[in-house]
């Protein structure tokens, strides 16, 4: 609980106090009872988010309630002022921003979940485990794969996949598993920072039109520095030798249609990028079109694959050999299941999508009241863009980077493209400073419970912080101020 108190105080300190602004220059509702009440509601809801593991309450629930209360108070405030239009217009504007991101993320998550269902990631994991590699080689292989997979398959999914490999290989070697998980988290977050598809924050920046699609690749070297520096320092803790020779998992084969779906995912990304850059259409159009094609291909798969009734009889004449049948079996059952794209979509992370709704509406509400305008003036005018953007990355280690980045995008401070790249970099890699600073770290703490913990990660925070500072230096040196 003491960590929650520290986070609460840190975030509260960053929020503007009404006493800091002159009454004649302050936005109309920042220093009113409603304006202060909205800040308190948001902070209380976010304390429940940060204490999700302690309270056993899904993080989407408190922020959705907070969003509703904040906007009801905003509507009341403007109605009391005799303005019945502004609150509704502002709400619809924020809702539209969320809708675009929601459908984009839904399409991307559906592709990733479909690839998982087709056992693409399981086959990759089984192949890595079956390779006769040393512990050091596994350490670098999982880190490199996490760094290069996360720009496409988001940092959370990548961290879980590579974390499973580390645990399967390391088994009872606690030190290797702990350091390997830290390496995977840092690499996944770093890889997601130089791609619009690697993290929700980079996606928000791209969809906002602040940085062009190709502009993100200027962060490749700084992102690599943020991973390689701590990776080299942590590698000294890895024992020289081979994994303990124990029972190996049987090799897994990808199910039918896995490679066509992977190719379709690549084409969908290309369609989203070209429609946005060439036709100036929202990128969500390309993603949803690709999702529609995936559904059509799913119809073909469902017609092709066998479907066993409760009696256990196969009634699909297309199945003509045992190899085809074995490829359709799930990971933990011998029942042949008919492919259903809607069941795949159901497995998407709906808690994350709903949490994103609450965050966008909460931060949008605080912006409508004028709080973010005061915060922008306080931070960027006082500290300057470079120092402010560097500190924002540190804050994202304490507070989820989604609301932090959305707040910056809503404030819209006057910055050059390279400064926008800097804040994109810092919010992406800043979460690696603590295990609770990113979704990848939190997920791996649950996956490797008792081995990869907050304190094991904290032991190497100094190395990660060094990589963080050197990555900022690399960006300023390569891309300029």
Could you characterize what this model shows?
The chain has 481 residues and is mainly α. It has helices at 2-14, 33-50, 52-55, 60-80, 86-117, 120-130, 135-153, 155-170, 174-192, 200-208, 220-235, 258-277, 283-304, 322-327, 341-346, 350-369, 371-383, 385-398, 401-411, 417-429, 439-447, 454-458, 461-479. The radius of gyration is 24 Å and the shape is globular.
Number of strands: 0
Strand content: under 5%
Structural class: mainly alpha
Q: Report on the biggest sheet.
A: none
N-to-C order of helices and strands? HHHHHHHHHHHHHHHHHHHHHHH
Describe the global form.
globular
Give the helix level as a range of percent. 55-70%
What would you call the quaternary organization? single chain
Q: C-alpha Rg, in Å?
A: 24 Å
Cα distance spanning the termini: 39 Å
Q: How many DSSP H or I helices?
A: 23
């Amino acid at each position: 609980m003491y960590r929650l108190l520290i986070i609460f105080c840190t975030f509260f300190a960053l929020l503007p106090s009404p006493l800091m602004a002159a009454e004649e220059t302050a936005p109309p509702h920042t220093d009113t009872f409603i304006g202060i009440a909205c800040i308190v509601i948001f902070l209380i809801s976010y304390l429940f988010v940060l204490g999700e593991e302690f309270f056993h309450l899904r993080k989407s629930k408190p922020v959705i309630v907070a969003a509703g209360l904040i906007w009801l108070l905003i509507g009341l405030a403007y109605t009391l002022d005799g303005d019945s239009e502004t609150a509704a217009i502002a709400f619809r504007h924020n809702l539209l921003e969320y809708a675009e991101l929601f459908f984009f993320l839904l399409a991307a998550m559906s592709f990733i979940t479909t690839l998982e269902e087709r056992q693409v990631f399981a086959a990759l994991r089984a192949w890595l485990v079956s390779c006769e590699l040393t512990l050091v080689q596994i350490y670098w292989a999982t880190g490199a794969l996490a760094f290069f997979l996360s720009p496409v398959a988001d940092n959370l999914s990548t961290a879980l996949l590579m974390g499973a490999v580390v645990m399967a290989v390391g088994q009872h070697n606690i030190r290797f598993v702990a350091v390997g998980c830290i390496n995977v988290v840092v690499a996944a977050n770093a890889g997601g920072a130089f791609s619009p598809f690697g993290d929700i924050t980079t996606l928000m920046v791209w969809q906002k039109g602040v940085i062009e699609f190709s502009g993100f690749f200027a962060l490749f070297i700084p992102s690599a520095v943020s991973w390689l520096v701590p990776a080299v320092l942590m590698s000294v803790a890895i024992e020289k030798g081979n994994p303990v020779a124990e029972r190996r998992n049987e090799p897994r084969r990808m199910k039918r249609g896995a490679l066509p779906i992977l190719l379709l995912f690549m084409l969908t990304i290309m369609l989203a990028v070209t429609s946005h850059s060439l036709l100036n259409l929202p990128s969500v159009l390309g993603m949803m079109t690709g999702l529609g094609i995936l559904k059509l291909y799913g119809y073909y798969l469902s017609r092709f694959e066998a479907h066993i009734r409760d009696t256990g009889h196969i009634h699909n004449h297309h199945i003509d050999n045992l190899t085809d049948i074995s490829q359709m079996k799930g990971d933990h059952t011998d029942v042949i299941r008919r492919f259903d794209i809607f069941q795949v979509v159901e497995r998407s992370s709906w808690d994350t999508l709903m949490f994103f709704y609450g965050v966008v509406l909460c931060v949008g509400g605080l912006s409508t009241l004028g709080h973010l305008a005061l915060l922008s003036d306080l931070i960027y005018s006082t500290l300057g863009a470079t120092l402010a953007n560097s500190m924002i990355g540190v804050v994202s280690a304490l507070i989820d980077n989604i609301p932090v980045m959305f707040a910056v995008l809503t404030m819209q401070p006057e910055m050059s493209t390279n400064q926008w790249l800097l804040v994109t970099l810092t919010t992406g890699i800043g979460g690696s400073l603590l295990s609770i600073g990113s979704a990848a770290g939190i997920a791996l703490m649950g996956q490797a419970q008792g081995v990869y913990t907050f304190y094991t990660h904290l032991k190497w925070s100094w190395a990660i912080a060094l990589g963080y500072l050197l990555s900022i230096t690399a960006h300023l040196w390569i891309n300029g101020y």
